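Hi everyone, sorry if this is the wrong subforum. Our group has a chain we'd like a structural model of before ordering constructs, and none of us has done structure prediction before. Sequence below.
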Amino acid sequence: MNTTSAFHTYRIVIKDKDFQVLVDGELKIDGTGKFTRPAYNGRSGISFGAANSPNLGEAYWESVKICNPARSLNDLVLEIRLSK
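Answer:
Right subforum, don't worry. Here is the predicted structure as tokens:
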């Protein structure tokens, strides 16, 4: 899937033993029943971006919304370009 031509809306839904990944409202990954055991030590989470140090990733995000009672944010770099 080529995601470089435009902004896309990604939605990841996790509930009980199921997860789904939707892109622009279209189901791309159906993980129904794929979580077969509880997360280690009750942890749950999701990561996006470069996940292997010291490599870096780059992405342009128009908006990010996270609904999760256990939120944390690590290693954020922000660039703001002002137009004239």
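For your construct planning: Residues 1-38+56-67 form one domain. The chain has a mean pLDDT of 77.
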